[in-house]
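User: Earlier you gave me the apo prediction for this protein. Now I'd like the version with S-adenosylmethionine bound, so I can compare the two side by side. Same sequence as before, with the ligand SMILES added.
Assistant: Got it. Here's the input I'm using:
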Amino acid sequence: MTLVTLTGEPWADYGLIDSGNGRKLERYGRFRFIRPEPQAMWAPAKDDWKADGEFIPGADEDGGGRWQLSPEVPAGGWLLAWREAKFTASNTPFRHLGFFPDMAPVWDWMRGRIEGAAAPECLNLFGYTGVGTLALAAAGARMVHVDASKKSVEAARGNAALSGMADKPVRWLVEDAGKFVAREVRRGRRYDGIILDPPKWGRGPNGEVWKLEEGLPGLIADCRRLLDADSRFLFLTVYAVRLSAIAIGELVRQHFADLPGKVEAGELTVREEARGLELPTAIFARWSND
Ligand SMILES: C[S@@+](CC[C@H](N)C(=O)[O-])C[C@H]1O[C@@H](n2cnc3c(N)ncnc32)[C@H](O)[C@@H]1O
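And here is the structure of the complex with S-adenosylmethionine:
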């Protein structure tokens, strides 16, 4: 399988300014932050980074730690935009800013896939704060947005309102992704596109345990059953897991062997503004019917 890289270029409200020595400096609107980045093993372009805050990791590699922020950074967040989508960024305890900017080229790719489709219907599993949902809704898709966390779904609906998209055809569901997809299969439903961004580990609203390596094969099999030869795409991203892009690519290829189109796998990267180098952020596998 040939690997592809899908690279996020800087945009008005987001850029990876510089990276190196295990850290990265990014801009989120008018604020700059430093976060740990183990993959940035190289030397940074500059060593006098100025930022409005820094995430100081705890002793535990996978979690813990805290933000050190200047008083100007609003605790309730601030407004950012990507194309038609407007959303709140804020410094979360999970190191990130409440959305994943490296997904921007994925949002564009999916919009390209549904171009020309009449009222396409797409599913966003593990949809979090909903920027992907809004990106597709703005391009004319009817959306089903699924996330186990009531708080995340509320944040996503808030982002829809901020974007002036509260009246777009979006079903906002607080549900376990696996259970929801299995139910849709039983109902004989079909979709034009599916995006899924499963965490390594998670919990459904009723305590259902999600473990990526155990749950992914069944979930991909069910997603395939919701797509047919007229569907447009499936996009799977995986972060922070000891898996190769080839492994998830072969998994998707096996399940999509009987559909037209192609399966590709590779890495998501973000372009550093200082030198143009690419910082890898996630692996992905995708199917498209073109
Ligand atoms: C932000 S995405 C994952 C992003 C990225 N893959 C990562 O791990 O950093 C995680 C989302 O999945 C949701 N989630 C976790 N377990 C779930 C489940 N069983 N069903 C539906 N959503 C779930 C969480 O509420 C959260 O909003």
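For your comparison, keep in mind: Helices lie at 104-114, 131-138, 150-162, 177-186, 212-225, 245-255.
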